[in-house]
Amino acid sequence: MIIFISHSSKNASYGHALVELLRDAGVGAKEIVFTSNSAYGIPIASNIFDWLKSRVKERPCVIYLLSEEYYESVACLNEMGAAWIIETKGFMLFVPGFNLGSHEFSSGALDPRAIGFFLDNEDRVTEFIEALRADFSIIDNPVLINQSIRKYIDKIGRLKSPALSGNAQNSVPSGIAKESLAKNVSHELEPAFSRAPENMAKYLVDLRSGKLNDSDVMLILYVHDQGRIQLMTGWQEEQEVNRR
């Protein structure tokens, strides 16, 4: 059996960290297919589609490195579909920041109820390595395994920090953008506040007038979005229909 890491090239850095962890844990180089690294990728002069198809027919263990970029990639979705059709063994790993409530994930070929884990979840990563023992020669030294996992978790932390800090900066606009955000959010929440208790109405007034700081605006929007995700069609059904 081989491990095929299905991923978006935009998430290659996370894939490189995962490959390093697998190698440290004892998985052989010939047992890993990771197309973002030529050492584990497509042989020279091979047709990429024919080669991938032959690999999938071997019923590999597929690691789905899921992210927003993954679901935007036609190639990734083709890999997912092919692996799903032949019912390969697989693991769902989530890139930090991936929205598990996204429509793409909940309606895709993979079962969203199946257990997956985020790349930086140390306990789940440990379980994942242990699960690979059934098919691969994972080393028996627990100290080396723990050291490898800690090194991997540290690397994932360094990779995700710039991306998350960048998202935080982009999510807190300034000047005209702040005013525009406040207006958009207040319009978005108008139906909800119209049915809210009277003591909650002041928040919408403050929001409209720009009295709330950036973090308050983002927190209100986050709570609202989480309510829509958790409560689904029972939450502002008429407004949800109009949003389509």
Task: Report on the architecture of this protein.
This protein has 244 residues and is an alpha/beta fold. The chain folds into 2 domains: 3-166, Toll/interleukin-1 receptor homology (TIR) domain (Rossmann fold, 3-Layer(aba) Sandwich), CATH 3.40.50; 176-243, no CATH class. The protein contains 11 helices and 5 strands, in the order E-H-E-H-E-H-H-E-H-E-H-H-H-H-H-H. It has a 5-stranded parallel sheet, with helices on both faces. Helix 5 links the parallel strand 4 (90-94) and strand 5. Helix 1 packs antiparallel against helix 7 and helix 8 (176-194) packs antiparallel against helix 9 (201-209). It starts with a strand and ends with a helix.
Poorly predicted segments: 165-178, 229-237
Distance between the first and last residues' Cα:
44 Å
Mean pLDDT equals 76
Largest beta-sheet characterization: 5 strands, parallel
Q: Which radius of gyration do the C-alpha atoms yield?
A: 22 Å
Task: Give the overall shape.
Answer: globular
Question: Which percent range describes the beta-strand content?
Answer: 5-15%
Our count of domains comes out at 2
Helix percent band: 55-70%
- Strand arrangement across the biggest beta sheet: 2-1-3-4-5
Instruction: Please write the CATH class name of the largest domain.
Output: Alpha Beta
| Count of extended strands | 5
